[in-house]
Hints:
The protein is mainly α. The chain is 71% helix and 0% strand. The protein has helices spanning 4-26, 33-40, 44-50, 60-75, 81-98, 101-110, 116-136, 143-166, 173-188.
Amino acid sequence: MPTRAEHRRATLRRLGDAAVDLYESMAPAEPTVDHIASEAGVSRRTAFRYIESKEELLFTHPVLWFEIFDAAIAERADAPIGDRLRHASDAISRVIDADPEPVLRSFRVSRGVPGAAASYAVVNHRWIDRVEAEIARDSEGDRFRDRVLAAAVMGVIDAALEEWAGDEGATPLVDLVDRGLRLLSPLFADAGGQVGDAARG
């Protein structure tokens, strides 16, 4: 019997897949939440347990990546912050590179959906919060500095994803993320570790 976390993951994945399918097939019209929920085999009420707007369902992959991030961070729990972040980013990038098409489809579809940018910003804000919390574990209580560093890390991830999606995954995401994070290494030098090649492994 699946655990609650497994059930949540599977339901969110079904909703996200259904949303992308329907946005693609109905364009330029847009599906309703009822359409998406029905396609996913869940009730409208269940759908709204996971989302506030239908556009959020175009970004279920980044939400599911939190689990990969947390597991990778736990594997390097005692390592310097730069190493932890590099290891977690590497783990997520490798999962995406192993099966790029679902993420590429979401990117393609989201470009034509008016409310998608706002929904992506909500997800991105959650990621900045999570990265900031990880940086704060090693900091001396300078919340502004932690927030700036977290936003810089997510800026690299966003830029790498845009570049990767723009060339349809021709360049491995893991390489783009690594290249971007190496640019931030000087910022993390006083935080106990780099976020580039030296931390990779």
